[in-house]
Amino acid sequence: MEALPARARVYVVCVTLTALVCLVPPPGLLSSSPATGVPWWPVVPLAALYAGCERLARSRPVATPHPGGASYPVLLAGAFLLPPSGAALVALAGALPLPVEQRPYLVRRLWRTGRLVLAVWAASRVHLAVGGREAVADCDVPGALGTAGAAVLVFCLVLTLLDGGILALTAGVLPRGGRTSATAAWWQLFLRSLVPLTVHGLAGLMMALLWRSPYGPVAALLVLLPMGVSWWAFAQYHRERAAHQATIRALVQAVDIKDGYTRGHSERVGQASMMIARELGLDDDRVEVLRFAGILHDVGKLGVPTRLLTKNGPLTPEERRVIELHPEYGHEMVRGISFLGEARAAVLHHHERLDGSGYPYGLAGSQIPESARVVAVADAFDAMTSTRSYSRARPVPVALEELRRCAGAHFDPRMVAALVRAIGRSGWRPAVTADEKRPDADGHRPPAAVTEPAGPVTDRSGARR
Q1: I need a surface site. Which of 18, 27, 217, 277 has the fewest CB within 10 A?
Q2: Is residue 228 domain-resident?
Q3: What are the start and end residues of every segment in region (Disordered) (predicted)?
Q4: Do 57 and 64 meet the contact criterion of CB atoms below 8 Å apart?
Q5: Does residue 1 belong to any structural domain of this protein?
Q6: Is 231 part of any domain?
């Protein structure tokens, strides 16, 4: 949002003005709701509780990637207890004072507050219209569940519609993909938000029921205890995940710095490995592990002299043997990283071939781990479709045809077929990863490219990947 286009700023202003209109209470509701007799005094403790939960969710011990959702139970409890304008006031009083960490500060503050005010107002309005206040007041749990579900659905719908609008205006979803792309993006956003918001809605309903019960508001606070534990566990999971990503990112950056000709290769092999894994129908955890395997497959190049990685001429047998040690170097580097799982085997065996002609151990057929067979295909494909110091990029159809030709001898036919299907459906954007005019250590500029002779992808280029 740092460079918000004018149309996005107008959108934020319109959302803010509409939210201000929602804060105006209808006549007769300045002190209480005639239908339920609910006083307006809960606005103050709920707003304070909401702001406190938000600050706690952003604090270091329990910080989560999406701290805004941590306090939604309080907002929804307000929607179930208060008239629409009162519930909107809880969101306003709680969200407006919260700090903003990125520019533009005012626009972000107005956007965060306005979207919540509108969503809570709409949820409270629907809850009131379907008789939810009476169900909460009578502690009619079955009736309260149904009416709360309708309110949560509207809450989710309004939030995702508003978010989809700002994304389309700031990220350019509509110009790039047209109306169909924007609709698909919004639908994915709605589905991702619905389940967690339903959980928050149940917690908010429990707060509202306890609030109206003989036990009073203090008992309602007890609902936040298990929610707090879940926030903390969620934060620990994401903190650990962030540490994993930082470890992988540091290793890949080190490889890219050492071998500039293949910069970006690791990420693309990770992407291709993930495409193959998804096409094979593997579960999400294994897909993620195979993405790690693709990203880290060449980390052992850190142990190979740079002069060999960037050499323009033919490799001598001794130089080839040195380069062929990089899978073992890589495995030594990552074998102590437990979260990588089977990715470690892929780092070690991604240059093995089905016919036993690969390295470092000459494994054949099913002796080669499945993860290594996936990465081998992804690695060979990206190597062929990228320009290196020793080979010019081949067109994607040519590279796929070469993989098909070598399937069964060098590559697992299942993995090749999976990549072909995935690229046929999603496409592939090959990238030139070498600066073809970069000077060498002596200041001489190499030729534009040394064209790889037509033949198997396991020629000299295979030892460089």
Answers
A1: 27
A2: no
A3: 429-465
A4: yes
A5: no
A6: no
Tell me the CATH number at 47: 1.10.1760
Distance CA 82, CA 76 (A): 10
Model confidence pLDDT, tens digit, residues 291-307? 999 999 989 988 888 88
Residue 284 host element (H or E): helix 284-296
State which amino acid sits at residue 135: A
**Separation of first and last alpha carbons in the chain:** 39
How many residues would you count in the chain? 465
Q: How far apart are the C-alpha atoms of 186 and 179, rounded to whole Å?
A: 11
Same domain, 247 and 146: no
Please indicate, yes or no, whether residues 247 and 216 belong to a single structural domain of this protein.
no
pLDDT of residue 117 exceeding 90, the answer is yes
**231-287, pLDDT tens digit by residue?**
666 667 667 777 777 878 788 788 777 766 556 888 899 999 999 999 999 988 899
Q: Are residues 132 and 248 in the same domain?
A: no
Bridge-partner residues for 57, per DSSP? none
Chain segment 120-152, per-residue pLDDT in tens? 999 999 999 999 988 888 888 888 999 999 999
Q: What are 407-457's pLDDT values in tens digits?
A: 999 999 999 999 999 999 888 875 544 333 333 333 333 333 322 333 344
How many C-beta atoms surround the C-beta of residue 190 within 10 A? Answer: 18
Token pair 């992804």 in the structure block, residue: 378
Which tokens belong to 27? 């006549």
CA distances 25 to 21, 34, 84, 319, Å, are 9, 13, 8, 80
Cα–Cα distance measured from residue 38 to residue 340, given in angstroms and rounded to the nearest whole number: 55
* Mean pLDDT value of segment 1-25: 85
Indicate whether 205 and 248 sit together in one domain: no
Environment class of 40 (CB within 10 Å of its CB; exposed 0-12, middle 13-18, buried 19+):
middle
Torsion of CA 126, 129, 133, 135, to 10 degrees: -100
Please check whether residues 55 and 174 belong to one and the same domain: yes
Say if residue 15's pLDDT is above 70: yes
CA dihedral 190, 192, 197, 202 (to 10 degrees): 120
> Both 307 and 160 in a single domain?
no
Contact 97, 112 (CB under 8 A): no
Cβ atoms 348, 296 nearer than 8 A: no
- Taking every pair of Cα atoms in the chain, the longest distance, rounded to a whole number of angstroms, is 91
Cis omega (within 30 of 0) for bond into 217: no
Location of structure tokens 């503050």: 109
The two structure tokens encoding residue 74 = 């309080």
- Together in a domain, 286 and 177: no
Q: Which of 157, 154, 155 is nearest to 190 (CA)?
A: 157
User: What are the CA-CA distances from residue 435 to residues 116, 193, 311, 391, 432 (Å)?
Assistant: 49, 43, 14, 12, 8
